[in-house]
Amino acid sequence: MGEFKVHRVRFFNYVPSGIRCVAYNNQSNRLAVSRTDGTVEIYNLSANYFQEKFFPGHESRATEALCWAKGQRLFSAGLNGEIIEYDLQALNIKYAVDAFGGPIWSMAVSPHGSQLLVGCEDGSVKLFQITPEKIQFERNFDRQKSRILSLSWHPSGTHVAAGSIDYISVFDVKSGSAVHKMLVDRQYMGVSKRKCIIWGVAFLSDGTVISVDSAGKVQFWDSATGTLVKNHLIANADVQSIAVSDQEDSFVVGTAEGTVFHFQLVSVTSNSSEKQWVRTKPFQHHTHDVRAVAHSPTALISGGTDTHLVIRPLMEKVEVKNYDAALRKITFPHRRLISCSKKRQLLLFQFAHHLEVWRLGSTVATGKNGDTLPLSKNADHLLHLKTKGPENIICSCISPCGSWIAYSTTSRFFLYRLNYERDNISLQRVSKMPAFLRSALQILFSEDSTKLFVASNQGSLHVIRLMEGSFKHLHTFQPQSGTVESMCLLAVSPDGNWLAASGTSAGVHVYNIKHLKLHCTVPSYNFPVTALAIAPNTNNLVIAHSDQQVFEYSIPDKQYTEWSRTIQKQGFHYLWLQRDTPITHISFHPKRPMHILLHDAYMFCIIDKSLPLPNDKTLLYNPLPPTNESDVIRRRTAHAFKISKIYKPLLFMDLLDERTLVAVERPLDDIIAQLPPPIKKKKFGT
Amino acid sequence: MAALEEGFTLSAVPLGAGPHGLLGVEQSDKTDQFLVTDGGRTVILYKVSDQKPLGSWSVKQGQVITCPAVCNFQTGEYIVVHDNKVLRIWSNEDVNLDKVFKATLSAEIYRIHSIQGTEPLVLFKEGAVRGLEALLAEPQQKIETVISDEEVIKWTKIFMVYKHPVLIFITEKHGDYFAYIQMFNSRTLSKYTLVLGQEEKSVIQGFSASVDRKFISLMTLSSDGCIYETLIPIHPREPEKSQRVVRSLLLKTVVSGNARSGVALTVLDHDHIAVLGPPLPASKECLSIWNTKFQTLQTSRELPQGTSGQLWYYGENLFMLHGKFLTVIPYKCEVSSLAGALGKLKHSQDPGIQTVPHFVNWETSRGYGLGSQNSEQSKRILRRRKIEVSVQPSASKQLLSAIKKDSEKHIEVELCKFLAIKRTPDFHTIIGDIVLELLGRHKAEPSFYPRNSLMQLIQTHVLSYSLCPGLMEAALEKADVQMLQLCLRQFPDIPESVTCACLKIFLSISDDSLQEAEINMESVSDYSDSVQEEKMEEQTEILHNGFNPEEENCGNCDRELNEKPQDTAEETTSCPVIPKRAALLNAILHSAYSEMFLLPHLKDIPAQHVTLFLQYLYFLYLKCSENATMTLPGLHPPTLNQIMDWICLLLDANFTVVVMIPEAKRLLLSLYKFVKSQICICSELNKIEVSFRELQKLNQEKNNRELYSIEVLELF
């Protein structure tokens, strides 16, 4: 099949930020996740948990609360005191409203989805009316002594429970006055702690308020009388989050020890109508604080400081033993953070606030499969480029020739020219970027590095011609009338004639660069596109979707290729379809037109279209080399999918030249090593 | 783990098996095909996996097959003997046995042996052996007589040893058994006399043999139901002389002693043998697989329709007659886990008794000690498996009426009779009734104390405290420590107050009266001279970076103790109580309790007894900490946790008293010191944990490759 020299790169020092909030939307089956750096990600749970959208973070915007309102509008609030609404179509921030109550710690949308409640540092609870365009301040509730850390609406919308420090208040929404104040015991394992922080509250329709606090307690209160009904001491550390299912028959809490507990409403005895809350299942999928939990109808979702998003299906709710029945742990973003210059063997790493350029090493030695070759030159860290301002980098790209670097934040677009003089590198910023080039969702250079393609968040695509130290705007493809959907993925053909662009849901558009017009649109598919690439010579567009389907579409013929039809007819191997992570990059072999190279986080695959397709009975992945099998057997068992699982977690893999690959791994241990230490649990003694 | 799979009947039509069953089942040259020779005139070739016959041949009316048909592996032909002297050789294509090759010999044939890798060998009734080819070349040649008059061949088998056939046959003459080993490479015949040992009168009912490199291991099943093993050397030192070989007991009482027929055994592999026969006098016949290494019953299968006492084993199949049908039971022995090898016996033991993991000493278990115990238990299981609905209320009624009036001796006899009967599902309630009846009479006439009967009843393992509430009270009244110990061991549900009452008696009873009592001492081993190999290095001081924290922290108490070092040494080496009392106290330590209910009762124990018990517990603790595993020697010793819990309990209950007693002061000080050392250890461990984690990290880093490397990958 082929022997490659693989540059195995582990120096991409990427650490995802911890998860702060998760919010589940039942209507669209989407999950919004906010991270400590202010990034908000949208996962489509129906599309194989694909991270289909993201909003870049901002240094000053620490998100503390996240919620969905009616009409699938997403709001967040944070310590900068602002309430933000996100535009899920254009992928930018619609507006930010200051609540004037100091840092906001909590937010809750009313059961009808028309009112928004925020809890502030100064102890105020503020009610906002959600209008179709914006939100409007309505009134304040009775001010409390200390910050409001958690809020929950009664399902009828008449009352609100608010968790503060040492007590829980129950407000009447109509009057805005506190009806009850329930003091929480500060005692912690017999020792009086200074304060007891109510990290989370949940108001049930029968009037029960469930609270979780920093003393490790889960408590049930009767809101009508303001009395404690039941107390579960579940942890030696803080219980930080709570989420209740829509049916109110089960809820989930997360603790600072990394444990997630499932509580269920269970009949006291069989056949009796009397039910009580019972702690049923503990899960330990996290090592650090579980800062946020969510409860979808079929799964418990948790996330925390250890940066993993864990989706734990409730097996009793899962009807078919399929893909959704498996535990999911999402750690890495489903987009590319790395680009590479094949000509100069450079790698560009994108971090939240800086970029790094590395030059790969080299070797003169050769070896056989599995050998590690002695290096004649080690990899060099060439460049460390810090961004200006508090905004996170959205996207970045290095040109194939290695002389251009472009990146974008939410408000600015940067283009740099790299000059190589022997071992010295000089960086020169290209100034005077045009006004329309403000923010890009995706940047791509053409194969000959003479053109720059920028997908802006207004749905338009800019084509720019690059010259020595300057540039010229050639054209802007405007989005189809009526749509404002942003393009997140771009692919250009090696001959520079075709540009493919895909948004999150609509089909893939193919533009003719020569004639600067829309060539065709690939029919849209139910699942979002995760990777795109155009093959050399044939100009076949290869599209990977989040349900692990791969299509090949001939751009000149404007139809799916024969091979693509064949594989759709026969279907992919079941193990291929059961993979966990989406394909994030596709590339081609310059000399072997029949080969498609693609990878996800746990495998790298070369599809050889000339070989027969595997059926469900054949072994998809065979790590062992054929020993002394006869050629006949080898030929008979050989199939189109050549898979390697050596490199994982694999963030990037590309072909540098015919015989050389570059693989960027990010071992989980290295990430854990950079996280703050978890709560120490004693192993010995008492 | 050895297992019997679901068996199947080979022929739907009953074979014409006579009263003596089949003549034999022999392998053919194709795997999975077997030649079955019935007792009359027919030979049938079966394909076992298809469960169907492939061919069938019969001799003429009037002729009788006298020797099982075998296959000549070198030619693929079949050979059978009829009318003792006539050989018939035929192949698959032949239809009529009358028309096939025939050779009439000059002497009567006992068996033809055929085995892969050599020509068939013919064993004559007079003990001579000939190769088939030599015999066919000259059928009427003279056959010499090897064995003496009145000696009869009982059994024979052939082995291949280093590519040469070795034939063994056993003869019997007037109750004496002889083994002959015929070697074919050296043409030597050795004769051995089997010495039966003490079981002189017994008759050997079944034979089987396996071969090791140097020995033939002959297994014999005697009429007493035990299996004996005899090792017969293949290469005798003095081949000319007649030698004696002794047999040793391998498994005890695998079949009922007085089974007259239907007994057979065969060696399955190195460690397993299959035994056919009734496990108990009254039971149906059974096929059981025994592990000889662990002396355990691995599995068994009941054969309710009876067997002929014949058992063949080829490949993975056991062949036997079940009723009138030839039955095949596939046998599998997979790699066994330790738990599996220990057998089914483990599961049947009452969980209440075995609180401590029971370790088998691998070296000695092959002997007799454990064997007898196990076989006794296995009997119990087998008996328990035979639970039938046929209740015999008359027996229990008879016994109950006997209890009302008869003497203790008479009751004992009646009880023995009753216990010998099969167990019924309500056995335990009947036993409970009997005990209650006995206790009722005891209450009415205090002189009546049927101790032996009660002990026997307790040992049925079905009693519990709640079934006979008065039993332990009566024993306490009589200060019957032996019975109390037995109850503590057997009953899972003794109330804490009774446990505490037992403890009081155990502590207060005089040494003299203890000496008379028969007490189970298995939980006590001789502590004084127990030399532990893993003895931990005794280190009194630990220097932390050159300074000793002990000195600073543990001020006067330490010094005070150090003042009398001789005393402490003395205290640690000698047990404060006599072994019999120790055994009784261990029974208390093993018993189950709930702290809440026990504590109030512990307060009633007199102070000097508390001190004594504490001393004993402290002694046990010291013994425990002598070895690295923190266990005590012995068969059923108290565990460290039990010791610790009881120390805490006693101190909790009696601290006001203990503090006041001068004798207890030193004990308390040493306990204090040891608690302190425990806390020290825990805190040190907590400190070390960080270092361990660092070490682990270092270890991981070593495995991790560099941050950057160039590797070669080949995709296939």
From TrEMBL, chain A:
Ribosome biogenesis factor. Involved in nucleolar processing of pre-18S ribosomal RNA. Part of the small subunit (SSU) processome, first precursor of the small eukaryotic ribosomal subunit. During the assembly of the SSU processome in the nucleolus, many ribosome biogenesis factors, an RNA chaperone and ribosomal proteins associate with the nascent pre-rRNA and work in concert to generate RNA folding, modifications, rearrangements and cleavage as well as targeted d Involved in SSU pre-rRNA processing at sites A', A0, 1 and 2b. This is U3 small nucleolar RNA-associated protein 4 homolog. GO terms for molecular function: RNA binding. It comes from Ursus americanus (American black bear). Interacts with HIVEP1 Interacts with NOL11. Part of the small subunit (SSU) processome, composed of more than 70 proteins and the RNA chaperone small nucleolar RNA (snoRNA) U3. May be a component of the proposed t-UTP subcomplex of the ribosomal small subunit (SSU) processome containing at least UTP4, WDR43, HEATR1, UTP15, WDR75. SMART domains: WD40 (SM00320). The keyword Phosphoprotein applies. The lineage of its organism: Eukaryota, Metazoa, Chordata, Craniata, Vertebrata. InterPro entries: UTP4, WD40/YVTN_repeat-like_dom_sf, WD40_repeat_dom_sf, WD40_rpt. One of its GO terms (biological process) is regulation of DNA-templated transcription. SUPFAM superfamilies: WD40 repeat-like. Pfam families: WD40. It is found in: Chromosome; Nucleus, Nucleolus. It comes from the Eukaryota. Keywords: Chromosome, Isopeptide bond, Nucleus, Phosphoprotein, Repeat, Ribosome biogenesis, rRNA processing, Transcription, Transcription regulation, Ubl conjugation, WD repeat. PANTHER family: U3 SMALL NUCLEOLAR RNA-ASSOCIATED PROTEIN 4 HOMOLOG. GO terms for cellular component: 90S preribosome; chromosome; fibrillar center; small-subunit processome; t-UTP complex.
UniProtKB/TrEMBL annotation, chain B:
It is found in: Nucleus, Nucleolus. Residues 1-332 form the Nucleolar protein 11 N-terminal domain. Pfam families: Nol11_C (PF20998), NOL11_N (PF08168). InterPro entries: NOL11 (IPR042859), Nol11_C (IPR048897), NOL11_N (IPR012584), WD40_repeat_dom_sf (IPR036322). Keywords: Activator, Nucleus, rRNA processing, Transcription, Transcription regulation. SUPFAM superfamilies: WD40 repeat-like (SSF50978). One of its GO terms (biological process) is maturation of SSU-rRNA. GO terms for molecular function: RNA binding. GO terms for cellular component: t-UTP complex. Residues 397-716 form the Nucleolar protein 11 C-terminal domain. This is Nucleolar protein 11. It comes from Ursus americanus (American black bear). The lineage of its organism: Eukaryota, Metazoa, Chordata, Craniata, Vertebrata. The gene is NOL11.
